[in-house]
C-alpha cells in the first residue's frame, strides 16, 4: 500500500456513489462499501473493493468515511443515528459527507462529530453520473484547510476540479448555487429546444453551433444527446433536484438574496415532479415545456 493510500468506508453506493467507490479502488485505496441494497455492494466487491453488512462493519477500521446518500434525513440516519458512523468510527477518523444537503445539517454533523473526536469535511460534487464514472467531478469542500489537504489523495481519485471554498457548511452553500445554475441552464435548454423545433430548424445542427458559442455550457455538452434522443434515463433525478431547489431557496431567503428566475424554475421542477417525472433525469424539464407547447410527451 502506498503512502497516499487510505482505508476508506464508503456509505451509499447509488448512481453516484457506486462509480465513485470503484474509482477509489482503482486509485489503490482499500474501500469497504455499505449500501441498503446488496447488489451495489456486490458490484463494488467485484471491482476489487470489500463489502460490509452494516455501517459498523464498514467503518470499524476506516481512516476515512465517505457518505453519499440522497438527502438530509439519510445523512442524519447514517451518521448520527443508532448504529451509525459516529457510534462506530474511531477518534481521528475523517468523515467526508459528499451528499447534497443543507449547510445547517453539515454544521450539525460537524458539531456532533467533534464531540466524538472525529474530523469532518462537507464535500458535495457536481458532474452527474458521467462525471462520477469518469472521475471528473467538481468537488466543493468546506472545513478545516488541514483536513482538506489530508483528503487530497481521496479527492484526486474522484474529481478534476477540487476547491476548498471555506469553513464547514461552505461546500453545501456552493453546491446550492451550483444546483440553482444547473436548473436554470436546463430550463433554458428545454425552452430553446422547443423553440427551434417549432421553427423547423435542424435541432442537432443548431445545438452543435450553440455549444460552440457563448451559449455553450457543460449542461449543453452533457445533455445534448439525451435531449436529441429524448432519453431521460436518470443520471440525476428530478426528485433530487427538487430537493436541492428547496435547499437553495431556503438558504437564499436566510441571507436575503433574491432568486427571481430561480424561484420560477423551482416551481417548474416541482411541477415536473407532480406530473410524475420525478424519477427521470433532470433534463426531462423538456417535457414540461413540450406540455406548455401543446405537445404530447413521450
Explain what you see.
The structure is a single chain. The chain has 2 domains: 7-167, 3-Layer(aba) Sandwich (Rossmann fold); 174-293, N-(1-d-carboxylethyl)-l-norvaline Dehydrogenase, domain 2, CATH 1.10.1040. It contains 15 helices and 9 strands. The chain has helices at residues 17-26, 38-46, 55-59, 72-80, 85-88, 103-115, 128-134, 145-150, 152-156, 170-198, 203-211, 218-229, 238-254, 260-277, 285-292, and strands at 7-11, 30-34, 50-51, 64-67, 94-97, 119-122, 125-126, 137-143, 159-166. Strands 1, 2, 3, 4, 5, 6, 7, 8 and 9 form a 9-stranded mixed sheet that branches.
Q: How would you describe this structure in keywords?
A:
298 residues; alpha/beta; Rossmann fold; N-(1-d-carboxylethyl)-l-norvaline Dehydrogenase, domain 2; 2 domains; nine-stranded mixed β-sheet; 9 strands; 14% strand; globular
Short description:
By secondary structure, this protein is of the alpha/beta class. 54% of the residues lie in helices and 14% in strands. The longest helix is centred in the middle third of the chain and has 29 residues, at 170-198.
Amino acid at each position: 500500500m502506498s503512502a497516499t493510500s487510505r482505508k476508506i468506508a464508503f456509505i451509499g453506493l447509488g448512481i453516484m456513489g457506486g462509480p465513485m467507490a470503484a474509482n477509489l479502488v482503482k486509485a489503490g485505496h482499500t474501500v469497504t462499501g455499505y449500501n441498503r441494497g446488496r447488489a451495489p455492494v456486490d458490484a463494488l466487491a467485484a471491482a476489487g473493493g470489500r463489502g460490509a453488512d452494516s455501517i459498523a462493519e464498514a467503518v470499524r477500521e476506516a481512516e476515512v468515511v465517505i457518505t453519499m446518500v440522497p438527502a438530509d434525513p439519510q445523512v442524519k440516519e447514517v451518521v448520527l443515528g443508532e448504529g451509525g458512523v459516529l457510534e462506530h468510527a474511531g477518534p481521528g477518523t475523517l468523515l467526508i459527507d459528499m451528499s447534497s444537503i443543507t449547510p445547517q445539517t453539515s454544521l450539525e454533523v460537524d458539531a456532533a462529530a467533534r464531540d466524538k473526536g472525529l474530523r469532518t469535511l462537507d464535500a458535495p460534487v457536481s458532474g452527474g453520473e458521467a462525471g462520477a464514472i469518469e472521475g471528473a467531478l467538481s468537488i466543493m469542500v468546506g472545513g478545516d484547510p488541514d483536513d482538506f489537504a489530508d483528503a487530497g489523495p481521496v479527492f484526486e481519485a474522484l474529481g478534476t476540479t477540487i476547491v476548498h471554498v471555506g469553513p464547514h457548511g461552505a461546500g453545501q452553500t456552493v453546491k446550492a448555487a451550483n444546483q440553482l445554475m444547473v436548473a436554470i441552464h436546463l430550463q433554458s435548454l428545454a425552452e430553446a429546444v422547443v423553440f427551434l423545433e417549432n421553427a423547423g430548424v435542424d435541432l442537432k445542427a443548431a445545438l452543435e453551433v450553440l455549444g460552440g458559442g457563448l451559449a455553450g455550457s457543460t449542461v449543453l455538452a452533457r445533455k445534448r444527446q439525451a435531449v436529441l434522443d429524448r432519453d431521460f434515463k436518470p443520471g440525476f433525478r428530478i426528485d433530487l433536484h427538487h430537493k436541492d431547489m428547496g435547499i437553495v431557496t431556503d438558504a437564499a431567503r436566510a441571507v436575503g438574496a433574491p432568486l427571481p428566475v430561480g424561484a420560477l424554475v423551482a416551481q417548474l421542477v416541482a411541477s415536473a415532479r407532480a406530473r410524475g417525472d420525478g424519477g427521470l433525469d433532470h433534463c426531462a424539464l423538456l417535457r414540461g415545456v413540450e406540455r406548455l407547447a401543446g405537445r404530447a410527451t413521450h
